[in-house]
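User: Predict structure, ligand NAI.
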Amino acid sequence: MLDRLLLTGAAGALGRALRPRLAAMARTLRLSDIAALDAPAAHEEVMCCDLGDRDAMERLVAGCDAAVHLGGISVEGPFPPILNANIVGMHHLYEAARIHGMRRIVFASSNHVVGFYRQSEVIDATAPPRPDGNYGVSKAFGELISRFYFDRYGIETVCIRIGSAQPHPLDRRMLASWLSYDDLTELIRCSLFTPNVGHTIVHGASANRDRWWNDRHAAHLGWTPKDNTEPWRAQLEAAPAVAADDPLLIYQGGRFTAQGPFPE
Ligand code: NAI
Ligand code: 15L
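Assistant: Predicted complex:
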């Protein structure tokens, strides 16, 4: 068990789902977001701040052993807010970790780092990034800055390229990309407690029938997903057919690949 674990993005969809699930992993769970959070329980602390605020980020990280970093813009869109939260915010997080001696970060990266690979391809962590927008580029930056802080300062990171973490799969693409909350929780546990993870990239999908991602380079995490999308297959395949050129069923990143440009 950790002494104090930081959870950023705690007001978001995954943050709210993970808040009770992370309780068993640390004596104190420090919760943060730019949005308001529910009042802390006895084992929790709340410290809200903007990831773009350097001083606040240093205060946030001080005293934490590790972080699960979910905070940031989570969808495709205009560059300025993504720059602040996902790029400047990552710099602030890693600088604060360096200054305050935090040794491990679990980073919520995204399948959109590799969104322009086709669904007919199977890739592993050594495949060059092919981001599908401003958001995917920012997550690729997150993977790179975490690599630098491991090589230079020894701060370990597991980058989880989350597929589609939802209570259940919502469309045909998610038959392959879905990650259950239980499998995500276990992947985070493995990422926090496996010794010597160095800098690891792992793709976060449940044990679905169709696989786009080979995680042989993350085998040391010892993570074995348990859930799969078969219970939803018949219902989702019965949905009205999409056009043959719909990116939903062409690219791993689905419709993110067709968004933008965004006038500024
Ligand atoms: P979300 O959008 O519900 O949560 C993100 C949280 O970050 C929000 O509560 C938001 O207020 C906070 N945030 C945004 N800008 C901020 C800033 N400048 N300073 C501080 N906090 C800020 O997203 P969700 O679905 O909970 O995802 C969590 C993380 O996982 C995100 O980083 C997302 O990119 C990543 N992810 C999620 C996937 C999914 O299927 N849910 C798939 C791939 C990646
Ligand atoms: C993501 O990175 C997003 O944060 C999430 O909202 C989903 O759209 C997910 O990817 C996905 O690709 O399904």
